[in-house]
Amino acid sequence: MGILRRCPVPWLPLHKQEQYRERYKALKPSWQPATEVYESLVAGYLGPEAKVLDVGCGRGGVLERLHPKAALSAGIDVDIPSLREHRAPAVKRVAAKAEDIPFANESFDLVICSWVLEHLREPEAAFREIGRVLKPGGHFVFLTPNALHPIPLLNRLSPGRLQRVLVPGFYGRAEEDTFSVVYRANAERDIERFARKAGMERVSLHYIEDPTYIAINDFFFRLGILMERFIPSRCKVHLVGDYIKSHPGNRPG
Question: Alpha helices, DSSP H only, in the chain?
C-alpha cells in the first residue's frame, strides 16, 4: 500500500486508459464510454437560450468544452482552489454545496454533475435543491459510479481504504483532489426515490461497462474484459442518468 501511495508515476494515467478504451471500442464497436454518453446527453439539451448549472464543477468538466453552446453557464463547488483554477473563465462560479444551491427557483433548463453523487452525504437534500432550481421540463443529467459494481462494493466494505490506495497509485491524483465517497445515491433504487421526492422522473438510466477501470497493463485489460462477461447488466461500473422535472400538476406520486 505504501508503495502505491508514494508512486511518482501513476499506474493508469488518463492517456493510457484512453488507449485501452480505443482498443475496447475496436473489439466492441457498439460500446461507448460513460463520459461520451454523458457529454452527448448534455450537448443535446444545450442551445442559444439554455441556462445550465454544473454541480461540483471542479476545474472544468464538459462545460469547459460546451459552455459556448449555452446562453448562460454556471458552476458550484465546495473546493475553492478548483473554482479559482477553472479552465473556462466564462462559466460563472460560486462556492456552494449541492445541498444549498444559491440560485432562485426555476433558474436553469439543465443541471449536470459528473463524479459527484458518490460524495453526497445528504443526497435527498441535494436532489431537492436540484429540482428546485430546475425549470419545469428541465433536465438533470449525471454521471456516477454504480454502487453495485464490485469495485465500489469493495470500497464500501473497506471504509474508504481502497480509495485512498487506488486513486493516488492508479491515477496519480493528489491527496487534496481525492474526496471521500459514501455511495448514498449510486444505485437505481436510491436515485429513483430521491428524484421522485424532488419532482423528477426518469427519461433514461444507462448502465455502462468499462474494462479499462483496472487496465494498468495488457493482462489486467484482458482480465477486465473477462470480468465484464460475468457482471450483470445492472451492476456495470458507471451510471449515466437523465431525469426531467415534471410540470406542476403532473408530479410523480
Answer: 2-6, 14-27, 34-44, 63-66, 80-84, 123-133, 150-157, 161-171, 188-197, 218-230
- Cα(191)–Cα(234) distance, integer angstroms: 14
Domain range 33-166+174-211+233-244, CATH architecture: 3-Layer(aba) Sandwich (3.40)
| Cα radius of gyration rounded to whole Å, the chain | 18
Give me the phi and psi of 115, to 5 degrees please. 55, 45
Q: What is the pTM of this model?
A: 0.89
| Mean pLDDT on 168-197 | 78
C-alpha cell at 69: 453552446
CB distance 111 to 142 below 8 Å:
no
pLDDT of residue 70 exceeding 90: yes
Is the pLDDT at 168 greater than 70, yes or no? no
Q: How far apart are CA 5 and CA 125, in angstroms?
A: 34
Exposure on the CB side of residue 130, measured as CA atoms within 13 A: 39
Report d(CA 224, CA 201) in Å as an integer.
Answer: 33
- Domains of the chain, by residue range, sit at 33-166+174-211+233-244
φ/ψ (deg, to 5) at 95: -80, 115
By the 8 A CB rule, do 35 and 64 touch? no
Give me the count of residues in the chain.
Answer: 253
